[in-house]
Design goal:
This protein is mainly α. It contains 27 helices and no strands. α4 packs across α5.
Length: 504
């Protein structure tokens, strides 16, 4: 049985993770207000770094100054500008990342107003890793380089190397917003929530930066821990005059999500409406959250009304709801490029291809591209086997399942359903029937309506070829479940199997 992991039960607004270049273009590294550095910021470490730069006048300390300055809004400091100019004069000796940092500081006023359209992330990951390694030989204490290196390793699913890079980055630059958000997203990815929250709360930015506060609130909520920064966030929102709108986007959405999770639809709606008032001063992550939450709180929302880069996730769900499945699949494929360290876009994409579009050839192509990287991902392997079996590539499908490992009863039930499909295609209906019914019992036990609908659909489809009345019974059950669980694609698929159900 295919599984799309298709509906977020509790989506939280955890930070997106990019290389520095893209974070910069998306304005996520820019000041959160229009003033100079915050008065309550502890400058002792910063003063030491500037002192070292003035004393030694080398690229290492110049880049350290820029890394620190950009996240405390110190754009008017003459020492910072001199350091940026020094970096740009020596571009041939530095990484493109460091040059980008210097350019951002010297041209902040221009960048602030410039509209930027960017393409999906560069796919040449191994080439980029080699470039960063070369740069680190000269600048081994540059935390931005270490963060980007961690990102690329995570994109190859080399998590041990990624963790080493991120640990170095966070220890070198734990007061840098870009590094903090990147590291916290990585620690969530490897299920080290306490580490993510430790660094977010430890930073001095936790008192003043909406981007950091939003991350702490959302990650705390994922792991059912009480946020220590939510009062700071509410205070910032209530006194938001000095903050630019983009910096408040994810904070408003994070607190709006908390309000919904704790039963206050009215307050949740107020926070989300305030986020949406900012129109295009809003992140795609916030818009994806609104897309997920809009029906729950009664907001009329269409992601296509917003001109924000990288809106693949929001558009994926918008088109899915409207049964524009080809467009939804295209967004899933783009989302995989956008989030290369996550298997979820391909899991969702394979579901759309196989179930919504009934096109297992496309599902196999999509999964084949990512399986080498995520070879240990249960749902990817299972979905691949399912689509291969649908194409009657039975031995190939069985091979995928031989070494697959399961972690819980639900995964075991999904595996049994896929094995049931294979047995039916081998003309062993008794064995296939037994496996499917075991899976169906498990989904009933855990009240997993979506998985139950899928299991009934595909069991009914296979059974229909051997016993039409029994098969029809389960197809009808899948239709009933699809209405309860808002899964129009299940109803469409069932009716395509048995013409007599079209007027049901």
């Amino acid at each position: 049985m295919i599984n799309g992991n298709f509906k977020y039960e509790n989506r939280q607004l955890i930070p997106r993770w990019f290389i520095y270049k893209f974070a910069s273009k998306l304005k996520e590294t820019q000041p959160f207000n229009s003033t100079t550095k915050p008065k309550d910021y502890n400058d002792n470490e910063y003063i030491k770094i500037i002192g070292k730069w003035k004393e030694e006048k080398n690229l290492l300390w110049a880049i350290e100054v820029l890394s620190y300055a950009i996240n405390i809004n110190d754009y008017d400091n003459l020492d910072v500008k001199i350091a940026a100019e020094f970096v740009l004069k020596n571009q041939s000796k530095i990484s493109s990342l460091a040059a980008e940092l210097a350019y951002n500081i010297l041209n902040y006023a221009k960048i602030k107003e410039k509209k930027i359209t960017i393409e999906p992330i560069d796919e040449h990951i191994k080439i980029n890793i080699n470039k960063i390694k070369q740069a680190l030989r000269e600048y081994p204490t540059n935390p931005l380089l270490w963060t980007d290196l961690g990102y690329y390793y995570a994109s190859l699913n080399q998590l041990s190397k990624a963790k080493n890079s991120i640990n170095i980055a966070i220890n070198l630059g734990y007061n840098n917003r870009f590094i903090l958000r990147s590291a916290s997203r990585f620690f969530v990815h490897v299920d080290e929530c306490d580490k993510a929250l430790f660094y977010l709360r430890k930073s001095q930015l936790a008192k003043i930066d909406p981007w950091i506060i939003s991350a702490e609130i959302s990650i705390s909520e994922i792991y059912n821990k009480k946020s220590k920064l939510i009062d700071n966030g509410i205070s910032i929102i209530n006194n938001s005059g000095n903050y630019n709108k983009l910096s408040l986007s994810e904070l408003l959405a994070s607190i709006g999500t908390i309000e919904l999770n704790h039963g206050s639809i009215k307050n949740s709606k107020l926070y989300f409406k305030r986020a949406l008032v900012n129109n295009n001063d809003i992140t795609e992550n916030t818009l994806s959250q609104v897309e997920w939450i809009s029906n729950k709180i009664g907001i009329d929302f269409n992601s296509k009304n917003y001109n924000v880069p990288f809106m693949f996730e929001a558009n994926l769900w918008e088109d899915y709801k409207k049964e524009n499945y080809n467009k939804s699949l295209e967004s899933a494929q783009n989302l995989q490029l956008y989030l290369p360290f996550s298997a979820n876009p391909s899991i969702i994409g394979s579901y759309i291809a196989s179930v919504c579009l009934q096109n297992d050839e496309d599902a196999v192509k999509l999964l084949k591209n990512v399986l080498p990287k995520f070879h240990d991902n249960f749902l990817l392997r299972n979905n691949y086997a399912f689509s291969l079996a649908n194409l009657n590539l039975i031995e190939n499908a069985a091979e995928q399942l031989r070494s697959i490992s399961v972690n819980n009863e639900t995964e075991l039930a999904i595996l049994k359903a896929t094995q049931g499909l294979i047995e039916f295609r081998k003309k062993n209906p008794e064995k296939g029937r037994s496996l499917y019914l075991d899976a169906i019992d498990t989904f009933k036990k855990y009240k997993d309506g979506a998985s139950l609908a899928r299991a009934c659909l595909f069991y009914g489809r296979e059974e229909f070829n051997f016993n039409k009345d029994k098969g029809r019974k389960y197809l009808i059950e899948s239709i009933n479940l699809s209405k309860i669980n808002d899964m129009k694609e299940i109803e469409n698929y069932a009716k395509s199997i048995d013409n007599s159900l079209k007027d049901l």
